Recover the amino acids of this structure.
């Protein structure tokens, strides 16, 4: 690693660990890091202005980070050009003085080479906009053993010019050991040490405790899995934030995080968290998937004044001549909308400015 890159990484890591104090120092990487919901236009195009508007909302709520896009979108229906255009617009917005959240790019790949290409793009955007970013990087899909995973993260450690949050599970490759994650944090201290622990089944809480015990090499352990274990993990194990697909509820996530930090001084944490789970339950209530970023939550984004539609871009069925994409809407009855409205109303004490659609 050359001297110039070493200095860039040192400064990047120092800023990531500094606590904001009224000056230029960035917040440390901790707190809620919501993933943005990708907006689409009626003609199946990435809606960049709405994406930027959503990021600005999450930042205004006080989130520690703003993440885009989801790994499924990167590897499914989002082109490299769209990935670049979206991140470029987000980085331009993040460069403005009011934007305090750490813009974080999801950096997966079917192979290590594919992921490294995305990391180099982030390096480019940081220089272009003079903005500090981060990466959220899970193992490449084609990794067949832990040695391949570690080799990938070492290669990424040589390329990345910003902090990298390691996501520990992708549903395809083997599970990486806690020991190897800690070793990477010691080998690349300006790049690694931030972990989104998302192991399957009953492994996650024990692994979180091991990672927390490995401080200071490990700097921040984030909860995952949609924040469904966050209350326990944050209060009892010591996770210091959450990475979750719930941008519509960024202000509620921030409210919960502040109560976890202050020991629930006003005794509202349990109520606020239960109301978050009530919103998660919408998908099950209407017979869809509550863990999806979309579904009825698109209506929530509309109600909050961020999205203009409930459209999702999907691949057109085979045999559709000259048609790559089709748009799917989320049909909601008046009864279903009334139920969502009522649940949103119950959130108001914990929302930004106490409003469902907060105004500047």
């Amino acid at each position: 690693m050359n001297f110039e890159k070493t200095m860039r990484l040192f400064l990047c890591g120092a800023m990531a660990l500094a606590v904001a104090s009224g000056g230029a120092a960035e917040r440390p990487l901790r707190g809620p890091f919501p993933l943005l919901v990708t907006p689409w236009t009626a003609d199946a195009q990435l809606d960049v202005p709405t994406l930027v508007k959503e990021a600005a909302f999450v930042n205004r709520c006080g989130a520690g980070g703003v993440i885009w896009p989801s790994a499924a979108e990167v590897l499914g229906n989002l082109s490299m050009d769209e990935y670049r255009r979206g991140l470029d617009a987000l980085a331009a917005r993040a460069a403005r003085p009011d934007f305090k959240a750490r813009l974080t790019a999801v950096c997966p790949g079917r192979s290590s080479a594919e992921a490294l290409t995305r990391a180099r793009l982030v390096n480019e955007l940081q220089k272009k906009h003079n903005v500090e970013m981060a990466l959220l990087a899970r193992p490449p899909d084609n990794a067949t053993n832990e040695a391949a995973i570690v080799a990938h993260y070492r290669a990424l450690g040589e390329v990345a010019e910003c902090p990298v949050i390691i996501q520990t599970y992708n549903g395809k490759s083997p599970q990486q050991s806690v020991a190897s994650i800690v070793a990477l944090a010691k080998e690349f201290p300006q790049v690694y040490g931030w972990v989104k622990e998302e192991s399957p089944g009953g492994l996650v809480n024990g692994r979180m405790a091991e990672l927390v015990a490995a401080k200071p090499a490990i700097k921040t352990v984030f909860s995952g899995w949609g924040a469904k274990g966050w209350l326990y993990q944050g209060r009892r194990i010591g996770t210091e934030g959450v990475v979750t697909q719930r941008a519509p509820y960024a202000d509620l996530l921030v409210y919960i995080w502040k109560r976890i930090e202050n020991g629930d001084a006003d005794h509202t944490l349990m109520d606020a968290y239960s109301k978050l789970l009530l919103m998660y339950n919408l998908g099950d209530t209407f017979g869809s998937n509550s863990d999806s970023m979309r579904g009825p939550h698109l209506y929530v984004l509309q109600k909050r004044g961020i999205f203009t539609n409930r459209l999702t871009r999907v691949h057109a069925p085979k045999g559709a001549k000259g048609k790559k994409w089709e748009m799917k809407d989320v049909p909601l009855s008046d009864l279903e909308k009334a139920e969502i409205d009522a649940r949103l109303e119950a959130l108001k004490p914990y929302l930004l400015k106490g409003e469902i659609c907060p105004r500047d």
